[in-house]
Amino acid sequence: MSEGHAPIPFPWQMDEWELIQRTRRDDRLPHALLLTGPEGMGKRRFADALAASLLCCAAASDGIPCGNCRGCDLFRAETHPDLKYIVPEEPGKAILIDAIREFTSKESLTALAGGYKIVIIEPADAMNRSAANSLLKTLEEPVDRTFMVLISSQPGKLPATIRSRCRQLQMRLPEPSLAKQWLSGETEGMDTALLLSLASGAPLKARALADPALLRLRVKLLRQFADIIAGKADPVTVAAAWNKLDLSLVLDWYYGWLTDCLRLKTDPECTGVINPDQRKCLQGIGKSIEFKRLFGYIDDVHQAIRARGSQLNQQMLLESLLLPLAGRQFGNLG
């Protein structure tokens, strides 16, 4: 958020914004909102804008906060007494029960400024079982003018009892033309179509990839992937090198390569590839792998993505993906 300005939704979120504001004007705002959708859609920005709107003393008719009142000043300074964020103590770790209890105590549920009391939980699916059960009690017996926003890219990991007590709002991917227009204003001289393809259409994810060095790294890793399959590289050595990188990024790229290999093997003229700039390379790799093995590799990466953030050793996880490429066995991840 720029200094002096209140947060506003991204251009592709305006339909969802109007829906929530209309619900608010009709005095039907739910006590808990579950924001879902792919990573890179700006769910946190939407939650921040909504919190700022509810805490603003002079919001516009469309709900956009004024940015100048006492409520907006406190929000911008991150000192508003009626806004709380609950996040893991460390990225990838669980949200524990103590963090939820601190919010759900009766004193913490009462707004000090006379308006809404707001809590934003991100990612909500990081709550462990005890934390989720503690929150459930508050969801079952909501306190008036207490508003909870749960953010999750993987809502299926949340208990059904939590999901059923929240109003779900899914952030949809923007139209490609709108995404490209926005992204072109955020990047300079970059191939916006390629970035959006690599990000599966998620604009913020695409913006994060708008780094020539990062795109060169992707090509370097793809060549290493191809060399393992061709017997020209040692998978353990490559896994050790990949272990020093962002695991989520590596797994995203790896999944994209395998998906493209499968698509191009099925239909050499396929237009919906994730890595259009590496089409020839991926088509060649796909030709060298039989369908059964390709499906197996894709199952393996799905399993690795699910295991991401667990206590599993990252080096072992990468080896479990790369060793089978060279025809070598690795124990089940469990």
Overall description:
The protein is α/β, with parallel strands linked by helices. The protein folds into 2 domains: 11-170, Rossmann fold, CATH 3.40.50; 211-326, Zinc Finger, Delta Prime, domain 3 (Up-down Bundle). The protein contains 15 helices and 5 strands. It has helices at residues 14-25, 43-55, 70-76, 97-104, 129-140, 160-163, 176-186, 192-198, 203-208, 212-229, 235-242, 247-266, 279-287, 291-307, 314-322, and strands at residues 32-36, 83-86, 117-121, 146-151, 167-170. A 5-stranded parallel sheet has the order 2-3-4-1-5, sandwiched between helices. Strand 3 (117-121), helix 5 (129-140) and strand 4 (146-151) form a beta-alpha-beta unit. The longest helix is centred in the C-terminal third of the chain and has 20 residues, at 247-266. The model is unreliable at 330-334 (pLDDT under 50).
Secondary structure elements and pairings:
Elements: H1 14-25, E1 32-36, H2 43-55, H3 70-76, E2 83-86, H4 97-104, E3 117-121, H5 129-140, E4 146-151, H6 160-163, E5 167-170, H7 176-186, H8 192-198, H9 203-208, H10 212-229, H11 235-242, H12 247-266, H13 279-287, H14 291-307, H15 314-322
Please outline what is shown here.
By secondary structure, the chain is α/β, with parallel strands linked by helices. Helix content is 48%, strand content 7%. It is built from 15 helices and five strands.
- Could you give the count of β-strands? 5
Number of domains: 2
Strand count, sense and closure of the main sheet?
5 strands, parallel
How confident overall, as mean pLDDT?
91
Total number of helices: 15
- The fraction of residues in strands falls at 5-15%
Order of helices and strands: HEHHEHEHEHEHHHHHHHHH
Radius of gyration: 23 Å
Strand line-up in the sheet with most strands: 2-3-4-1-5
The CATH architecture of the largest domain is: 3-Layer(aba) Sandwich
Could you list the spans in which at least 5 consecutive residues all have pLDDT below 50?
Answer: 330-334
CATH top level of the largest domain is: Alpha Beta
**Helical residue percent band:** 40-55%
The global form is globular
CATH topology of the largest domain: Rossmann fold
The CATH homologous superfamily of the largest domain is named P-loop containing nucleotide triphosphate hydrolases
Structural class: alpha/beta
Distance between the termini: 42 Å
